[in-house]
């Protein structure tokens, strides 16, 4: 079995033919072209390429990005599909993260969050607000909780890290939808009918699009009892230095304890926590420069 797998990884399928020299796996085909990965690292390089591209890739793109022959790229892609690490985009010949890879990424992030200063920031925010605070990321068509600090109140809502909730009716979910390109947003919203969880759930695409434009403009997203009756939430984004929204932070509470208007008064504290969490992901100097650039562009646009 080990030999079969090795042949799949190296693209060397014929056991009677001698394996190519190791140097061929690391040579540059042309000046400036990326060095091909070592045989044992080829599958990882494909997963890394998908993660860095931020979009599904075709066989030709894998081959060009990784300096790997197309037949080898084809074999590795299909091996990774068999393992659930890559998945074919419906109706295309392009490949993105599979369920197993997505779960692995979420698990790694969740572990990192709980062991890092980000957990302490979330706990401090929860104490300051006296309510439950959440940290989440977009994963496929759902929102995934990376971490959650429950308020010290009885009858709290119990969602464990790794729990998945819908996008169209949650504050963090709508925040992610609002920052997706039109094509990606349309694909998610058009996948299946929007389920009405409560009387306040927005299920009409036109109304939801209006809500998402408002959220994108303000940088503040709300859930006014749209997912769970009697519960309100307010969320703000966590951005990478280039401005892309990569995570979100939110406060949630029963409306009997916190009205939506009261929740909106917590936006400054939420944004401060988001900025501090950004500082745990990326270099502080790069973040300051990126924020100055964003402010300059915003003023110029106005």
Characterise this structure:
The protein is an alpha+beta fold and 302 residues long. It is 46% helix and 17% strand. The chain contains twelve helices and nine strands. It has helices at residues 2-10, 42-53, 59-66, 70-82, 99-115, 117-129, 171-178, 182-189, 205-218, 260-264, 267-281, 284-301; strands at 57-58, 86-88, 94-97, 132-139, 142-149, 164-165, 221-224, 231-239, 245-254. Strands 6-5-4-9-8-7 form a six-stranded antiparallel β-sheet, sandwiched between helices. A three-stranded antiparallel β-sheet has the order 1-3-2. Helix 3 packs across helix 4 (70-82) and helix 7 (171-178) packs across helix 9 (205-218). The chain is globular. The N and C termini lie far apart (63 Å). Mean pLDDT is 80; it is low at 1-33.
List keywords for this structure.
302 residues, alpha+beta, six-stranded antiparallel sheet, three-stranded antiparallel sheet, 9 strands, 46% helix, globular
Provide the fold topology.
Blueprint: H1 2-10, H2 42-53, E1 57-58, H3 59-66, H4 70-82, E2 86-88, E3 94-97, H5 99-115, H6 117-129, E4 132-139, E5 142-149, E6 164-165, H7 171-178, H8 182-189, H9 205-218, E7 221-224, E8 231-239, E9 245-254, H10 260-264, H11 267-281, H12 284-301
Antiparallel strand pairs: 1-3, 2-3, 4-5, 4-9, 5-6, 7-8, 8-9
């Amino acid at each position: 079995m080990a030999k079969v797998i090795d042949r799949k990884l190296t693209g060397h399928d014929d056991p009677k033919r001698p394996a190519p020299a190791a140097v061929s796996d690391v040579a540059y085909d042309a000046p400036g072209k990326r060095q091909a990965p070592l045989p044992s690292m080829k599958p990882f390089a494909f997963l890394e390429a998908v993660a860095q591209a931020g979009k599904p890739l075709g066989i030709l793109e894998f081959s060009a990005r990784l300096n790997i022959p197309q037949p080898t790229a084809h074999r590795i892609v299909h091996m990774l599909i068999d393992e659930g690490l890559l998945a074919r985009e419906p109706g295309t010949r392009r490949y993105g993260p599979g369920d197993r890879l997505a779960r692995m990424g979420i698990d790694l992030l969740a572990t990192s969050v709980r062991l890092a200063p980000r957990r302490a920031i979330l706990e401090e925010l929860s104490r300051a607000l006296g309510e439950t605070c959440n940290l989440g990321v977009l994963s496929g068509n759902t929102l995934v909780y990376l971490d959650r600090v429950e308020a010290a109140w009885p009858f709290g809502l119990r969602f464990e890290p790794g729990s998945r909730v819908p996008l169209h009716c949650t504050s963090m979910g709508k925040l992610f939808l609002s920052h997706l390109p039109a094509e990606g947003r349309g694909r998610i919203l058009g996948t299946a009918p929007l389920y009405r969880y409560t009387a306040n759930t927005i299920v009409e695409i036109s109304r939801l699009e209006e809500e998402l434009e408002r959220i994108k403009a303000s940088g503040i997203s709300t859930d006014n009892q749209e997912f769970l009756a009697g519960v309100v939430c307010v969320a703000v984004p966590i951005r990478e230095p280039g401005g892309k929204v990569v995570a979100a932070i939110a406060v949630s509470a029963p409306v009997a304890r916190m009205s939506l208007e009261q929740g909106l008064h917590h936006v400054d504290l939420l944004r401060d926590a988001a900025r501090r969490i950004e500082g745990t992901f990326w270099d502080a100097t790069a973040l300051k420069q990126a924020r100055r650039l964003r402010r300059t562009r915003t003023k110029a646009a106005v």
